[in-house]
Amino acid sequence: MDTIPKILLDMFEHESTQARFVLSAAKDTDLSFTPKDEMRPLIDLTNHLAQIPIIDFKFFTKEFESFEQVRAMEKDLRQDTIENMLTTYDQGIESIKEHISKLSDEQALENNMKAFYQDGPDKNWAHYLPEITTHLAMHKMQLWMYLKLAGAPVSMWTYYGVPQSE
Asked: Which residues constitute the domain of residue 76?
């Protein structure tokens, strides 16, 4: 029988692999592209997606105490190329996978986590790893739509992380 951390990681790895594939599809796209005046430019969206694993991990493990700390970390992690963003992304994904894979079922269910901005009781990895996964999924879709609007050669295969031969 699978452990709770293994089940959580299977779901997380599936979505994080697809999100990485969409992020890598932005390599040849103008990062200054903005779909509409009120929307953020592509470079901001790609940086945000690349930073989600690191930032969300630190939110839920109580490493941040204020939004000022979050903004400082985002500034430190900001990159100018998709290659560098992929490195940031990969580091965050690996940190989460390493941490979760070392947990027992009991540790994965221990209510000892919460972001500083949240009310209510602490929660656990069974709650927060799916939260990180859905955060990745939402911005994967947003990035895919930006790429479509920018004229990048993306398809539903790209969205689902399926390589297509040229």
From this structure: 4-157
Q: Which of 21, 29, 43 is nearest to 147 (CA)?
A: 29
CA distance 39 to 46: 13
The dihedral sign for the CA sequence 127, 128, 133, 137: positive
**Structure-token pair, residue 65:** 């105490």
Which domain CATH number covers 83?
Answer: 1.20.120.450
Tally the domains of the chain. Answer: 1
| The overall pTM is greater than 0.85 | yes
- Residue range 105-147, pLDDT digits in tens: 999 999 999 999 999 999 999 999 999 999 999 999 999 999 9
Q: What is the pLDDT of residues 59-118, one digit of tens each?
A: 999 999 999 999 999 999 999 999 999 999 999 999 999 999 999 999 999 999 999 999
